Amino acid sequence: MVISFGCSARRRPTWILALLLLILITMIRVHGQSSTSGFISLDCGYRNTSPYKDSVIRGIQLLSDVGFVEGGLTHQIAAEFMSGAVYESQKTLRSFPNGSRNCYTLPSTTGKKFLLRALFTYGDYDGLNRTVDGTLFLFGLHIGVNFWDTLNLTNMDPSNTLWKEVLTVAPGDSVSVCLINFGLGTPSVSALELRPLLDAMYPFVNTSVSVGYFRRIRFGEATNFITRYPVDPYDRFWEQWALNSYPWINLNTSSQVEILPGDDYFNVPMAIFQKATTLDTNYSSS
Ligand SMILES: *[C@@H]1O[C@H](CO)[C@@H](O)[C@H](O)[C@H]1NC(C)=O
Ligand SMILES: *[C@@H]1O[C@H](CO)[C@@H](O)[C@H](O)[C@H]1NC(C)=O
Ligand SMILES: *[C@@H]1O[C@H](CO)[C@@H](O)[C@H](O)[C@H]1NC(C)=O
Ligand SMILES: *[C@@H]1O[C@H](CO)[C@@H](O)[C@H](O)[C@H]1NC(C)=O
Ligand SMILES: *[C@@H]1O[C@H](CO)[C@@H](O)[C@H](O)[C@H]1NC(C)=O
Ligand SMILES: *[C@@H]1O[C@H](CO)[C@@H](O)[C@H](O)[C@H]1NC(C)=O
């Protein structure tokens, strides 16, 4: 059984992003930073307190979440799903059966812009098949006192991994990420990741505006469903575009993709710009 990544997929908006990406291609400069300095990667529920490196996410050091949260119980996903885990951090999780609000405290720097991501693999850790028992399975995510998102695990394949991502500015020298119990299932989390961004990036994100993840898609051929660090020095998740069969045609180039100086808004990696998808112009659907 393979642990796969799932989002509540909706087909139509892909078009908007496809267009947006094409427009952005003409105006974005590639800019590199390839250090993991400031990265915080917590493997929730992992009990060994020595840091480790994941063989798939090369170069990133993961830590147990011990010391970043109080309470909760540590678990492993069911044995049948273990071999399908892409990342080590999907194998363990921490659940919060008690309390309506349980918070992690992650160190940060006041005013620093960063990406915050939380990953959730249910993996039938409690043996209850809770995602497919026919009842609602929902819990909330807050950043401090602000609502971030709702996790809806109802009817989810237990081997799926959901993730939520937000671009935000640290309000203080720490950021608190809270799991909110709605009384519709025990909240749990598998991994928490904090990635610093350049201040110039995403200029519409500021102390009063944060931006949640909808989709971030890469076109052309991709080896994995998720492209991330080290291809993207900021470790953003880029989803492989689903429609890569005829009449869609994958293109690639090994040339340097032309970039404009002075535009640090998105810093899309050149490796992503070097691949694209086009439609066979001879194709007609009617
Ligand atoms: C939850 O609360 C019960 C009753 O107060 C307590 O026995 C148990 O240890 C708590 N569990 C966790 C994970 O905090
Ligand atoms: C969970 O679902 C699996 C597959 O549908 C089934 O084999 C198993 O018996 C279920 N477990 C429980 C506790 O209902
Ligand atoms: C959660 O997902 C279920 C199944 O897809 C759906 O029926 C329900 O409306 C969703 N609830 C919310 C609050 O999104
Ligand atoms: C944040 O950005 C929004 C939209 O661009 C703007 O209206 C708002 O004044 C900004 N807030 C701060 C504190 O700069
Ligand atoms: C690049 O495109 C060519 C065809 O134009 C194809 O043969 C080659 O496999 C592609 N390479 C990659 C890395 O996608
Ligand atoms: C489209 O049709 C033209 C003329 O028949 C042909 O030369 C060309 O190779 C076709 N393009 C593709 C992508 O099949």
Account of the 3D structure:
This protein has three helices and 20 strands. The strands form five sheets. Strands 1, 2, 3, 4, 8, 11, 14 and 15 form an eight-stranded mixed beta sheet that branches. By secondary structure, the chain is mainly β. The chain has a domain of 184 residues: Jelly Rolls, CATH 2.60.120. The longest helix has 13 residues. Helix content is 7%, strand content 34%. About 9% of the residues have low confidence. Bound molecules: 2-acetamido-2-deoxy-beta-D-glucopyranose (6 copies). The site of one 2-acetamido-2-deoxy-beta-D-glucopyranose has 2 residues, from loops. One 2-acetamido-2-deoxy-beta-D-glucopyranose binds next to loops.
| CATH fold-level label of the domain at 5-12 and 37-212 | Jelly Rolls
CATH architectural name of the domain at 5-12 and 37-212: Sandwich
CATH level-1 class of the domain at 5-12 and 37-212: Mainly Beta
Bound molecules: 2-acetamido-2-deoxy-beta-D-glucopyranose
Q: How many E strands? A: 20
- CATH homology superfamily of the domain at 5-12 and 37-212: Galactose-binding lectin
List the helices and strands in order. Answer: EHEEEEHEEEEEEEEEEEEEEHE
Largest β sheet strand count, sense and barrel closure:
8 strands, mixed
Structural class: mainly beta
Report Rg: 19 Å
Low-pLDDT windows of residues: 7-33
Main location: membrane
Signal peptide: 1-32
InterPro entries: Malectin-like_Carb-bd_dom
Protein name: Malectin-like domain-containing protein
